[in-house]
Inverse folding.
């Protein structure tokens, strides 16, 4: 898709306060995707399709992205954007709650990108591991959540999210089959590579 159109999608999302992937985060993920050249990507949290459209550039020629979004209006807008970007062959949206949809998926993915309800990250991780290729990578966005996750401030109204993000970090760093890096880029990014 041409850069101008993609920029329009991005600006509209930002104006509407849709939490699309940040530029520096996208840069880091793009580098990983370029190296991996994935066949299949699973994304949890489509929003208006911005990240999926950006990722689709790095797929193998016959590759595809499955992405899950529960908000009906966002799904509609994502479909329009994906069509405009001429990548409708490569991106398939599941509409519904990822908590219900994930257990029904039977595909194996090279990359799983987690970017939805923070309180569900430990569950998303469990499902991501189930669907992950033996050398696949799980990438989780917003893992440091504005710095709350690494601070000792526990009274925040988002404490359930914070507790679950901490649990996610503990699980990926302690899992002997994963090699995990936590980056301070954007809102925090966890990159966990499954060891062969
Ligand atoms: N990945 C997108 C941004 C996603 S924002 C991008 O960078 O362009 C997070 C999205 O996840 C929101 O649109 C929200 O509606 C969706 N979401 C949150 N919890 C979800 C759940 N349990 N199941 C499906 N979608 C969910
Ligand atoms: Mg995000």
């Amino acid at each position: 898709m041409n850069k101008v159109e993609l920029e329009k999608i991005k600006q509209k999302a930002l104006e509407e306060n849709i939490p699309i992937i940040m530029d520096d985060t996208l840069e880091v993920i793009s580098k990983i995707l370029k190296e991996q050249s994935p066949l299949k990507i699973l994304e949890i949290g489509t929003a208006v399709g911005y990240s999926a459209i950006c990722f689709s550039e790095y797929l193998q020629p016959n590759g595809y992205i499955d992405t899950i979004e529960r908000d009906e209006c966002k799904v509609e807008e994502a479909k329009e954007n994906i069509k405009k970007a001429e990548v409708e062959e490569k991106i398939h949206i599941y509409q519904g709650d990822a908590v219900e949809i994930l257990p029904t998926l039977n595909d194996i993915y090279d990359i799983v990108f987690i970017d939805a309800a923070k309180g569900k990250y430990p569950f998303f991780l469990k499902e991501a591991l189930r669907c992950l290729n033996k050398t696949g990578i799980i990438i989780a966005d917003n893992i440091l959540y504005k710095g709350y996750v690494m601070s000792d401030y526990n009274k925040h109204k988002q404490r359930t999210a914070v507790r679950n993000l901490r649990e996610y970090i503990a699980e990926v760093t302690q899992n002997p089959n994963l090699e995990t890096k936590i980056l301070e880029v954007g809102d925090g990014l966890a990159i966990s590579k499954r060891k062969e």
User: Anything to note?
Assistant: The chain has a mean pLDDT of 95.
